Amino acid sequence: MKNSPPAAKPQVAAKVRTPKKRQIIVNTGFQLRQLVPLAIYCSLLVIFLVPAIFYPLYRDASMDPSPIIRGFLSARIVSLHTQFWPAFILATVLAGLYALNASNHLAGPLYKLRVVMIQLAEGKSIVLRFRKGDELREFEDIMNRLGKRMESLSAGNVRQLSMIQKRLKWLKARLEMQEMENSEICKELDVLLKETGLDQYQTTGS
């Protein structure tokens, strides 16, 4: 009675999770480009609005013949500077932080998708998790299903290769211990092809 080779044990790829540490800037180039419209707006505001506010005061202060009026207008200009620029800088900083935070909800998912795709290409399985408020959340379920499918295919291929290896080793051991007819060898190979499902890829000559 012939001894059948032992069945191969399935091998499952290890799961790797992306880091959960919160970072405001995850893609420097992309997120800084999101600040360009804000920078343009602030520049235009300084170029057009500031002269419209301060230039008439400077003109009136320089043309007024009364020293008292000139002193009053000069003090008024200084007061406007001390009120306008801190408020302008504070508003710009807050708007910039808001824009960075908003861009993070897009840059973060893009970064995670990139990590997932790289790991899948390396044969690793990753559980993708987006944060609440992130964009592209519809890709979370798709990528997780894709990861499970790739893991299943990888485990199946590993089992199949292990089965082929064990069967060939068993056949080699038999050939070393005793002579076998060609028909018997072909029969064993046919069984191997059938068990591994490779027989469906055989082509018949015309």
Write a concise keyword list for the protein shown above.
single chain, 3% strand, mainly alpha, rod-shaped, 206 residues, two-stranded parallel ribbon
Task: Tell me the structural class.
Answer: mainly alpha
**Major sheet, described briefly?**
2 strands, parallel
How much of the residues is beta strand, in percent? under 5%
Q: Rg from C-alpha positions?
A: 36 Å
Low-confidence segments, given as residue ranges, are: 1-20
Task: Say how many strands there are.
Answer: 2
Mean pLDDT score: 78
The run of helices and strands is EHHHEHH
Read across the widest sheet, the strand sequence of neighbours is 1-2
Morphology: rod-shaped
Q: Distance between the terminal alpha carbons, to the nearest Å?
A: 38 Å
| Percent of residues in helices | 55-70%
Summarize the structure in short.
It contains five helices and two strands; from the N terminus they run E-H-H-H-E-H-H. With 206 residues, the protein is mainly alpha-helical.
Q: Could you explain how this protein is built, in words?
A:
The chain is mainly α. It contains five helices and two strands. It is rod-shaped, with a radius of gyration of 36 Å.
Q: What's the layout of helices and strands?
A:
Layout: E1 15-17, H1 28-33, H2 36-63, H3 67-121, E2 125-127, H4 138-177, H5 182-196
Parallel strand pairs: 1-2
Helix pairs in contact: 2-3, 4-5
